[in-house]
Design brief:
It is built from 8 helices and 15 strands. By secondary structure, the chain is of the alpha+beta class.
């Protein structure tokens, strides 16, 4: 990691190497905070307004005062990229409850901690896109929406981390979590789609998933080219019988998956509709940049 990077930290610019979060910060102590991860292409943040809308929503959902206006944050994000001379990068916006006394009461924290960071983006190897990922439906289930609502992009990622560990231990690249009813929910860092008889299917929001920015773009692109899209509760056996499968995220964009639980999806290669969506997504990015 380049330690010469400059970040925006609590209303001032500081070198990354000298930025310090208090050990009493409730984000560190309890995972009490929210975040967004955004791509930049050619020096421009991609879908920044959508990410900021979700960040504002997440803050409101946990009763955390939003530190700046979205318009000002947009300017700060652009300056962060420019100051660090980053064209193709990853932007991280994080807001925690802030430092305070030991205890769960949010009122113990008089001010929040807020930071914006940008790093050069190291894309996944091209070989992954050509051969596809191996997925594993893990035993770790998605947080129940009644415990941690699925529309919050929470800094508490332990649920996802445990699922990722489980997937890696099985030799898979990504873990797929079920919800408490046994339906497919999402990956540890991704939304999930499968294709059957030319129809694009993805778990609905009722499945207890985070509504992904890239997920919504894929749905929009598919509909524009006349592909039928179904959002529904997905049973694992339906998923395992797919002709094609793909996952989406800010970092992956659209990533083919060619194995689930050690078995081939379709013919074990990225399918034609997946490839088409991948190309159309890249065109979408070019038009938006």
């Amino acid at each position: 990691m380049n330690k010469n990077l400059v970040i925006y930290f609590n209303n001032r610019w500081v070198p990354l190497k000298s930025a310090r979060v208090s050990p009493m910060d409730h984000g560190f102590l309890y995972g009490d905070g929210v975040f967004e991860t955004i791509r930049s292409y050619h020096g421009r943040p991609f879908k920044l307004k959508d990410h900021l809308k979700r960040l504002v929503h997440s803050c409101r959902r946990i009763g955390l005062r939003f530190p700046q206006s979205p318009i000002k944050i947009q300017t700060i994000v652009e300056k962060t990229l420019a100051r660090n001379k980053i064209k193709d990068g990853i932007i991280r916006i994080a807001c925690s409850r802030g430092p305070g006394e030991i205890g769960l009461d949010p009122s113990l924290c008089p001010r929040s901690t807020f930071m914006i960071m940008a790093f050069p983006f190291n894309p996944p190897p091209e070989s992954l896109y050509s051969k596809g990922l191996a997925l594993k439906i893990v035993k770790t289930i998605r947080n129940h929406p009644g415990a941690i609502p699925n529309d919050i992009k929470s800094a508490n990622f332990l649920n996802n981390i445990l699922a990722k560990m489980e997937a890696k231990q099985s030799g898979a690249d990504e873990g797929i979590l079920l919800n408490d009813k046994g339906h497919i929910a999402e990956g540890t860092i991704s939304n999930v789609f499968y294709i059957k008889h030319g129809v694009l299917v993805t778990p609905s929001l009722k499945s207890g998933i985070l509504e992904g920015i890239t997920r919504n773009i894929v749905i929009e692109i598919a509909k524009e080219i006349g592909v039928r899209v179904i959002e529904k509760l997905v049973k694992p056996k339906e998923f395992l019988m797919a002709d094609e499968c793909l996952i989406t995220s800010t970092g992956y964009e659209i990533m083919p998956a060619t194995k689930v639980n050690g078995k081939k999806i379709g013919n074990g290669k990225p399918g034609p509709l997946t490839k088409l969506l991948m190309n159309l997504f890249k065109e979408h990015v070019k038009c938006s940049s």
